[in-house]
Amino acid sequence: MLMQTHEARLAALREELKRRGVDGFIIPISDEHMSEYVGDYAQRLRWLTGFGGSAGFAAVTLTHAAIFVDGRYTVQVREQVDGSLFDYKSVPADTLAGWLAQVCESGATIAYDPWLHTWAWVEALEKQVEPKGITMVPADSNPLDAVWSDRPAPSAALAIVHDETQAGRSSADKRAAVADWLVSHGHDAVVIPALDSVAWLLNIRGADVPHTPVALSYVVAHKDGSAELFIVPEKVTPELTRHLGNAVTVRDRAGFETALASDYAGKSVVLDPDFAVVGIAQALRSGGATFAFKQDPTILAKAIKNPVEQAGHRDAQARDGAAVAKFLRWLEIEAPGGGVDELAAAARLQAFREEDAGLSDLSFDTISAAAGHAALPHYKVDEDSNIPIPPGSIYLVDSGGQYPGGTTDITRTVWIGPGEPSAEMKDRFTRVLKGHIQIDRAVFPQGTVGGQLDVLARQYLWEAGVDYAHGTGHGVGSFLGVHEGPQRIAKPSGGQAGTGQELFAGMILSNEPGYYKPGAFGIRIENLVLTEEREIAGQEGRYLGFETLTFVPIDRKLIDKALLTASEIAWVDAYHAKVREVLSPRLSGDDLAWLERETQPL
């Protein structure tokens, strides 16, 4: 029987919890690989509550229910989730442990799916609720799945070969490096559940997760350089089998848990604390293996792009930049009449990208944000929230594409005429631009971490008594995840993962300071940059800087030239000269004329 209402779904889940003899259950947005973006089959929170954001979780007891989101989704959660069914809770001020202590009696048992949570998450929660007499118990199977009768099947897309001409390095070479790491650290094997790590290590890609070209699978890599790939057999083609070679054994994904429990007795196995779920650790322990939590050795290696990946990324950026430039010209013509809405703009941008046969997918859902919506950094337009782009306003578009050579991510903020932007808009835009330039021009010694650079982007906003609440930069994959660790540029406080990661030549990062005035407008300028070695006369030690990768005009109508120094004006002019150089061969006619106009010196 199909349950159409969220009230009926919640009631059915509660009946299933009663049948199992537990008092509550936790529902995250997660899959068994701890992916940032998950397939429809794993969208349990959306099915139960209606919430469509990318971060959050719910907790359901027999008598109470709550949904927990952070400040990005305060508005969205109230639009999408029925407040008569779920209490709205704001993270980090409200905690799951605190809520459970309020609504549960001593002796309560709260179930969780051990394949959707990490060991550290469960351990921390257990310590917090134990004094209240609450016990956390792993469920044998997910109780929500038992009542979700029309749950979609996982994607059946084939896994494909990512050729060495694009990867720049053979899978055998990568596996040998992992083997060396295992030997030097005294371990026998490492379990790799992160989908982009599997894809990188074996030079394979897929289409199982929206906007991220990965295949649902696990790898166990061994200290002799061999590996086992656990994947649905129907996804494996003869071409993939030939590519993997004799050193990679293909096994049925359905047998993964059994294999962990039977094949590693007496072995020392590495698990990444951020990606290895409780179910993996439990299976290894039940079979007599020991495990150690250490960062998966592919994570850092994947982040440092080799010369072939760097070249592929430059090509992807040029292709993508031409599409975005065409879109911005179209927007300049069409939007001032008031006939373009957020969804139509996003669709038109996608159409321009799709003119390039090399496009594989978007790299994330386009953030197409007009007026006050632009003040929501992670706004996601849908049929309910969609508004026309008002003439005489700021419009922000954050978007990207997946190309076999690389993954793109760009934000442009533009003025939609007629009329002129306000002095406040130009002031804030120019301060964001000044911070963007400071990151772009940064030179720093080897050993510097991302958290040390963050203040460079914020200083001019701070001078005006304003700030922004997101990080300044995240890592980006090579035809993989648009958000990739371990590096990032963000405030070092607040437990931001990655801000303590040393930056190395070859790492790609976004450079995206912003400013957001609630209900009024938002500004973000985002390019991608490549960390590279720098030569300085008389230098002592090794120094690094950034090569700009993204080339699309920055809206000169929003720049207050009086706030820029001579060297900043020179940066803008040099940047726009490079935009002309990169994009001119890819544009023609009116598009080329527009580009030449928009890249004139300040």
From TrEMBL:
<feature type="domain" description="Peptidase M24 C-terminal">
    <location>
        <begin position="543"/>
        <end position="602"/>
    </location>
</feature>
<dbReference type="Pfam" id="PF00557">
    <property type="entry name" value="Peptidase_M24"/>
</dbReference>
<keyword id="KW-0645">Protease</keyword>
<dbReference type="GO" id="GO:0005737">
    <property type="term" value="C:cytoplasm"/>
</dbReference>
<dbReference type="Pfam" id="PF16188">
    <property type="entry name" value="Peptidase_M24_C"/>
</dbReference>
<dbReference type="Pfam" id="PF16189">
    <property type="entry name" value="Creatinase_N_2"/>
</dbReference>
<comment type="similarity">
    <text>Belongs to the peptidase M24B family.</text>
</comment>
<dbReference type="GO" id="GO:0070006">
    <property type="term" value="F:metalloaminopeptidase activity"/>
</dbReference>
<dbReference type="InterPro" id="IPR036005">
    <property type="entry name" value="Creatinase/aminopeptidase-like"/>
</dbReference>
<keyword id="KW-0479">Metal-binding</keyword>
<dbReference type="GO" id="GO:0046872">
    <property type="term" value="F:metal ion binding"/>
</dbReference>
<dbReference type="InterPro" id="IPR032416">
    <property type="entry name" value="Peptidase_M24_C"/>
</dbReference>
<dbReference type="InterPro" id="IPR033740">
    <property type="entry name" value="Pept_M24B"/>
</dbReference>
<dbReference type="InterPro" id="IPR029149">
    <property type="entry name" value="Creatin/AminoP/Spt16_N"/>
</dbReference>
<keyword id="KW-0378">Hydrolase</keyword>
<protein>
    <submittedName>
        <fullName>Aminopeptidase P</fullName>
    </submittedName>
</protein>
<keyword id="KW-0031">Aminopeptidase</keyword>
<feature type="domain" description="Peptidase M24">
    <location>
        <begin position="313"/>
        <end position="532"/>
    </location>
</feature>
<dbReference type="InterPro" id="IPR000994">
    <property type="entry name" value="Pept_M24"/>
</dbReference>
<dbReference type="InterPro" id="IPR050422">
    <property type="entry name" value="X-Pro_aminopeptidase_P"/>
</dbReference>
<dbReference type="InterPro" id="IPR000587">
    <property type="entry name" value="Creatinase_N"/>
</dbReference>
<feature type="domain" description="Creatinase N-terminal">
    <location>
        <begin position="9"/>
        <end position="140"/>
    </location>
</feature>
<dbReference type="Pfam" id="PF01321">
    <property type="entry name" value="Creatinase_N"/>
</dbReference>
